[in-house]
Amino acid sequence: GYVGLVTGAYLANHGYQVTNIDISKDRVDALHRGEMPFFEPGLAEYVSRAADLGTLSFTTDAAQAVKFCDHLNNQEVQS
């Protein structure tokens, strides 16, 4: 969602390895193409920079994404 993408992009641009998880494969595919699901000034460039750095990724596979994570910020994770 809005908060997760913005926060994830911020953290990924400041040295953290971030994986954003979404249940929508279409949304994840769009993010891989650099398409933002909402408008926030500068967000597309910020996401692109972090993706290019290799610090931001997107997936629908929650179990795999959290397998090696140090921190989890989510209200509800089901596997």
Explain how this protein is built:
The protein has helices at 2-12, 25-32, 43-53, 62-66, and strands at 18-21, 56-59. The relative contact order is 0.23. Strands 1-2 form a two-stranded parallel sheet. The mean pLDDT is 87. The chain is mostly helical.
Distance between the termini: 19 Å
Global morphology: globular
Helix content: 40-55%
Per DSSP E runs of 2 or more residues, the count of β-strands stands at 2
User: Major beta sheet, specifics?
Assistant: 2 strands, parallel
Number of helices: 4
Strand order of the largest sheet: 1-2
Residue fraction in strands: 5-15%
- Return the structural class: mainly alpha
Tell me, rounded to a whole number, the average pLDDT: 87
Low-confidence stretches: none
H/E order of the elements?
HEHHEH
Radius of gyration: 12 Å
Q: What is the compact description of this entry?
A:
The chain has four helices and two strands.
Provide the fold topology.
Blueprint: H1 2-12, E1 18-21, H2 25-32, H3 43-53, E2 56-59, H4 62-66
Q: Features of this protein?
A:
mainly alpha, 2 strands
